[in-house]
Design a protein that fits this description.
Length: about 450
């Protein structure tokens, strides 16, 4: 007679709002009594606007993320940040499990409704613990959840070989068109709205950038406007990737705001001019602004998790190659500044412009608005040249300053050169800053 196999369980990270400690304690105690290995932060060990080291480490180590849902949890910045971080981890490892459990009166957001979730409010407490335990049960081999529990992850779209073609991004698997998400002006540029298992998102058109060596940085003998922070000039090799043809727009970012996975861009006032989110929503085809580096990373992690596609910020080297090509040109279109090709202070417009307005300012790979309109966050830390992705500047956990590229509508042409580089605190935002997505595997 064979011996019955003892069930094993996933190690779980318990995410909750600290306003609900008393309610959540009961769930954690009951799961622990069942023999489950759960990690539960009752003291809110976060730092600044970033996750604490212990929390980040536990998120990476745990194979399940149990989200105890209440209205407090839905409104919590930290719960949302933990969820975004775990969605990013799920995009890299499809064996991970996200399990929402509603334990207090609230409406489950569409993003979470796309996952298998447990309504603990609709059953006795012991039955809810049974359901959670069952969802966290795996076979003795430690594989995926049992067949009775639907997989919570989105199956990744197959990435065309070697890169997506120039134009609209590939549709996610299990997606249906959602035409109402894209204004005609954006649809005509190649933006496409989708509903992925009930979660709404807008994907931008992409520009493939072949791998190879390009000239990075500046040489004052060739560019009298070059600054010391751009030197020395040297050859750099980057792998193949694709980059968004335009900065992330308000229409795209609004999907994540509605899903409550990123905050509304805060209001910003400077020189008597005030920008708030309601004002931005009236211009859905403009770049999203008042976005910090942390906000940009959170958005792209969410997009990667929803679509199963490799969205992230470009590195500094990737951004510069996409902007200037391999020939060392000073601006995306060539070596001579032309105010008719971009939105800088020389244009006199004095604010952002819709994406796609300057097609003659496109880079060699067809990327637009890489000079002016908004400064764009990249993944890299601000460190001296030469650029070396292995020297720590691509450490995504660091809280040091990050690089911004491209200049803005308020800056002179010198700052819109393809080699110019700026820096900013990762938690800081202004009405001059936005970001652009890349499509590439992490570390490529």
């Amino acid at each position: 007679m064979s011996t019955p196999t003892t069930p094993t369980h996933r190690t779980a990270f318990i995410s909750h709002a600290h306003a609900d400690n008393a309610l959540c304690d009961r769930y954690v105690a009951a799961l622990t009594a069942r023999g489950l290995d759960v990690w539960y932060d009752r003291t809110n060990a976060q730092m600044g606007h970033m996750l604490g080291n212990e929390i980040q480490s536990q998120l990476e180590q745990r194979s399940a993320f149990v989200l105890l849902l209440t209205q407090h949890a839905l409104d919590s910045f930290w719960v949302n940040l933990e969820t975004q971080t775990y969605l990013g981890l799920m995009a890299q490892d499809r064996t991970r499990l996200l399990l929402p459990v509603r334990i207090g009166p609230c409406e489950v957001p569409s993003m979470l409704n796309a996952f298998f979730w447990i309504d603990a409010l609709a059953m006795p407490f012991d039955h809810a613990i049974d359901a959670i335990t069952s969802a966290l049960t795996v076979g003795a081999s430690g594989g995926r959840p049992s067949a009775a529990v639907p997989s919570p992850t989105v199956t990744p779209s197959p990435t065309p070989d070697p890169l997506p073609a120039l134009g609209p991004a590939p549709a996610p698997r299990d997606a249906t068109p959602a035409l109402h998400l894209t204004p005609t002006s954006l649809y005509n540029l190649g933006f496409r709205g989708y509903s992925v298992r009930g979660v709404e998102c807008v994907l931008p058109p992409l520009c493939p950038v072949p791998g190879g060596i390009f000239t990075m940085g500046s040489d004052k003998t060739k560019d009298p406007q070059a600054q010391d922070r751009e030197m020395p000039q040297y050859p750099v090799e980057v792998g193949s990737f694709a980059i968004g043809q335009h900065p992330v727009t308000v229409a795209e970012y609004a999907c994540a705001v509605r899903a409550k996975v990123v905050r509304e861009p805060p209001a910003f006032e400077y020189g008597g001019k005030k920008t708030d989110w309601q004002t931005q929503l009236k211009q859905p085809d403009h770049p999203a602004i008042c976005v910090s580096w942390q906000d940009a990373v959170a958005y792209l992690r969410w997009l990667a998790g929803v679509t199963g596609q490799p969205w992230r910020l470009p590195s500094e080297a990737e951004w510069e190659k996409a902007a200037r090509g391999a020939d060392g040109r000073l601006y995306p279109w060539g070596n001579t500044f032309d105010k008719a090709r971009c939105n800088t202070s020389e244009s006199g417009i004095g604010t952002t412009t819709p994406v796609g307005r300057y097609p003659t300012g496109a880079s060699p790979y067809s990327a637009q608005d890489m000079a002016g309109n908004v400064w764009e966050w990249v993944s890299s830390l601000y460190k001296s040249y030469p650029y070396n992705k292995a020297d720590g500047r691509e450490d995504q956990k660091s809280t040091d300053n990050r690089v911004l590229r491209g200049g803005s509508w308020a800056d002179v042409s010198r700052l819109a050169r393809a080699a110019d580089r700026n820096e900013g605190r990762p938690d800081y935002f202004t009405d001059l800053r936005g970001f652009r997505p890349a499509w590439a595997a992490a570390g490529s």
